[in-house]
Design brief:
By secondary structure, the chain is an alpha/beta fold. 28% of the residues lie in helices and 18% in strands. The protein is built from three helices and five strands; from the N terminus they run E-H-E-E-E-H-H-E. The longest helix has 13 residues.
């Protein structure tokens, strides 16, 4: 199976669990997936263990689940920030309604 024609949205905020963001990010890229890292704003994010700053590609504003094949939300303390965003909640609901894969890692679930 090839993944080179797939697009995945990865949500990021400060204090993400470093390996829960970095490992999926790099593995997806290695498989040829187009990964978009989206934050709550356009500021770079930093992991709990100090990795970063990691630039984001875009903000969650205006993104649509129809533009992606899957969603990844890493754990750490970042999900606590992400869940307070109406845009994030709408995106997650839209991915779910569309039956698209959602990877909630650790505290993101």
């Amino acid at each position: 199976m090839t993944l080179s024609d797939k697009k995945v949205l990865l949500l990021a905020a400060d204090l993400f669990e470093d390996m829960e963001l970095l490992y999926p990010l790099h593995r997806l890229i290695e498989e040829g997936v187009e990964v978009t890292v989206a934050g709550l704003d356009d500021h770079a994010v930093t992991g709990k263990k100090g990795h970063g700053p990691l630039p984001v590609d875009t903000t969650v504003d205006g993104l649509s689940a129809t533009d992606f094949d899957g969603l990844v939300i890493p754990g750490g303390f970042a999900p606590d920030k992400l869940r307070r965003s109406e845009q994030v909640l709408t995106l997650v609901r839209d991915f779910d309604t569309a039956g698209k894969p959602i990877a909630f890692i650790c505290h993101a679930g």
